[in-house]
């Protein structure tokens, strides 16, 4: 009998889709930052700065954001229920955190965070989330439509995996986009069909353009199966208007596209004249019920005022999918057994935070307000700072956690980048890091109109560090522009 000889595992012999997939927010520039950090540790004073400021990742607690006390109290009690047995311990916790932890423990198999739950997530926690969604939207939500996941990322990947059969299946994705989408489409062997957000109208989403892109794709034999909308936007920071959302719902309904609504930044809205509306609320308020629109809404414990990215919690709510399709999604979820239980608990907490009259309410509300108002001030300060730099324009940060300024770079800088075999924005971010220790991500990692250059910078550094950050940025930028002046 003859066997086909299997190749050794080398870069050339692994799955080419894995090789092709890219994820810039943890890409080359971050490896370089880690190298510099090690050098600073082993040889203090070896660089013109004494710390690396990580503005590449939307990772709030890594940059000093404090967790919400009520959430942590409930998690601590659930994790170690023996604390509940001693009165002197109980004095450390608020009465509503104690009551909530007891309720939650009763929902878990064996009253344990260490036991697997139902693969879709513990039913009682899904019911709590459904109640939270219903009170947010004013329309009912069903626990059976909710799948709890280890953050929004695996939920997005599950849906992309479900929808893509061959490279002739396409997903309409915004450009610029958060690279989870491009990476997942590549990994699953589909086609990314881009639609460009319009920078000159504050990253507006234009329906006519969507239609053109859809038609263009189908003329090339690509069946567009879904539209991704990130609202509030990453990296672009825009918050969609209700009118625009209605047009999007109508577009998806008419063409039978699944609307993949990434709403992980729903609590991060800073513009006074903007408000977050879930696509679920918009669709229901237009009178569209389950059969008329297929909608998946993604949420996460990683962002908002809670910023608990390391806890890996999130969920997707599926509306307008038949039971047999949901059974298949359930089967795939079962392959992973279940998402982690602390993440599941946190998801139920962010959707049901303390209410007026609860013992924790006032301190909870104060913590939340302190974080969100500070983020709004930081967004404004950085936006103003970028707009004051020569050749830089930055749209308003209406929501989310990022600035995405556009850089008009001198031709000599573009030529120097070419010689260094780098994209001009990557060249700029590299120089910025070497000169200041500030890590930002080149716009090319998110996609941008060809010939335009951007960087993405989070608004997350602590507020008292912003003035120093701005002055380092300003000094670097003017010397860069001087060095490469045409
Ligand atoms: N969707 C969007 C729009 C995101 O920005 C992120 C994370 C996710 C989904 C996935 O988050 P979780 O899996 O943690 O729920 N944002 C990344 C970013 O741009 N910087 O940090 C993480």
Report on this model:
The chain has 486 residues and is α/β, with parallel strands linked by helices. Helix 16 packs across helix 17 (466-484). Strand 5, helix 10 and strand 6 form a beta-alpha-beta unit. The protein has 17 helices and 14 strands. The strands form 3 sheets. It has a 7-stranded mixed beta sheet with strand order 2-8-7-6-5-3-4, with helices on both faces. The protein folds into 2 domains: 16-64 and 365-483, Aspartate Aminotransferase, domain 1; 116-350, Aspartate Aminotransferase, domain 2 (3-Layer(aba) Sandwich), CATH 3.40.640. Ligand DCS binds next to helix 7.
Short account of what is shown:
By secondary structure, this protein is α/β, with parallel strands linked by helices. It has helices at 16-20, 28-42, 69-79, 87-90, 95-107, 123-137, 152-163, 180-187, 207-219, 242-255, 279-285, 323-335, 341-351, 361-387, 411-419, 424-436, 466-484; strands at residues 53-54, 146-149, 169-175, 191-196, 223-230, 258-262, 295-300, 314-319, 392-393, 402-403, 406-407, 438-439, 441-442, 453-458. The chain folds into 2 domains: 16-64 and 365-483, Aspartate Aminotransferase, domain 1 (Alpha-Beta Complex); 116-350, 3-Layer(aba) Sandwich (Aspartate Aminotransferase, domain 2).
Question: Can you tell me the CATH class of the largest domain?
Answer: Alpha Beta
Q: Low-confidence parts lasting 5 or more residues at pLDDT below 50?
A: none
- Number of DSSP strand runs: 14
Strand content: 5-15%
How much helix, percentage-wise, in residues? 40-55%
CATH-assigned homologous superfamily of the largest domain:
Type I PLP-dependent aspartate aminotransferase-like (Major domain)
Under the CATH scheme, the architecture of the largest domain is 3-Layer(aba) Sandwich
Q: Which molecules are bound in this entry?
A: ligand DCS
Spatial sequence of strands, sheet with the most strands: 2-8-7-6-5-3-4
Whole-angstrom Rg: 24 Å
The number of domains is: 2
Number of helices: 17
Task: Look at the helices and sheets and give the structural class.
Answer: alpha/beta
Overall 3D form: globular
For the sheet with most strands, the description reads: 7 strands, mixed
Query: What's the quaternary structure here?
Result: single chain
Distance, first to last CA: 70 Å
Mean pLDDT comes to 94
What's the CATH topology name of the largest domain? Answer: Aspartate Aminotransferase, domain 2
């Amino acid at each position: 009998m003859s066997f086909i000889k299997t190749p050794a595992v080398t870069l050339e012999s692994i799955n080419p889709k894995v090789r092709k997939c890219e994820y810039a927010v943890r890409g080359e520039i971050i490896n370089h930052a880690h190298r510099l950090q090690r050098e600073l540790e082993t040889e203090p004073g070896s660089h013109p700065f004494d710390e690396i400021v990580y503005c590449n990742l939307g990772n709030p607690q890594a940059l000093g954001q404090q967790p919400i006390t009520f959430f942590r109290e409930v998690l601590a009690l659930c994790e170690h229920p023996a604390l509940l047995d001693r009165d002197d311990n109980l004095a450390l916790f608020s009465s509503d955190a104690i009551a909530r932890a007891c309720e939650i423990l009763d929902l878990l198999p064996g009253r344990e965070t260490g036991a697997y739950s139902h693969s879709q997530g513990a039913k009682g926690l899904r019911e709590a989330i459904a109640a939270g969604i219903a009170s947010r939207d004013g329309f009912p939500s069903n626990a059976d439509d909710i799948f709890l996941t280890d953050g929004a990322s695996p939920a997005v990947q599950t849906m992309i995996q479900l929808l893509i059969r061959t490279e002739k299946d396409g997903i309409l994705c915004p450009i610029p986009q958060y690279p989870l989408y491009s990476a997942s489409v590549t990994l699953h062997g589909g086609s990314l069909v881009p639609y460009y957000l319009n920078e000159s109208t504050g990253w507006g989403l234009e329906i006519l353009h969507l239609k053109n892109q859809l038609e263009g794709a189908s003329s090339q034999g690509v069946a567009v199966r879904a539209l991704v909308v990130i609202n509030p936007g990453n990296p672009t920071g825009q918050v969609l208007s209700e009118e625009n959302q209605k047009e999007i719902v109508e577009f998806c309904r008419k063409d039978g596209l699944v609307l993949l609504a990434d709403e992980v930044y729903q609590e991060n809205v800073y513009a006074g004249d903007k408000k977050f509306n879930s696509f679920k609320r918009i669709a229901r308020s237009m009178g569209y019920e389950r059969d008329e629109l297929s909608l998946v809404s993604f949420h996460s414990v990683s962002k908002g005022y809670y910023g608990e990215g390391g806890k890996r919690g999130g969920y997707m709510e599926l509306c307008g999918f038949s039971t047999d399709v949901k059974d298949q999604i359930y089967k795939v979820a079962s392959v992973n057994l279940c998402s982690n239980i602390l993440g599941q608990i946190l998801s139920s907490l962010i959707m049901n935070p303390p209410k007026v009259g609860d013992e924790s309410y006032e301190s909870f509300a104060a913590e939340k307000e302190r974080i969100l108002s500070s983020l709004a001030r930081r967004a404004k300060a950085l936006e103003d700072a970028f707009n004051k730099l020569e050749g830089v324009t930055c749209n308003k940060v209406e929501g989310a956690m990022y600035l995405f300024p556009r850089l008009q770079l001198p031709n000599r800088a573009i030529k120097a980048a070419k010689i260094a075999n780098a994209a001009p924005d990557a060249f700029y971010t590299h120089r910025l890091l070497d000169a200041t220790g500030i890590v930002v991500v080149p716009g090319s990692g998110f996609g941008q109109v060809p010939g335009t250059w951007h960087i993405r910078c989070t608004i997350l550094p602590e507020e008292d560090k912003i003035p120093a950050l701005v002055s380092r940025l300003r000094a670097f930028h003017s010397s860069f522009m001087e060095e490469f002046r045409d």
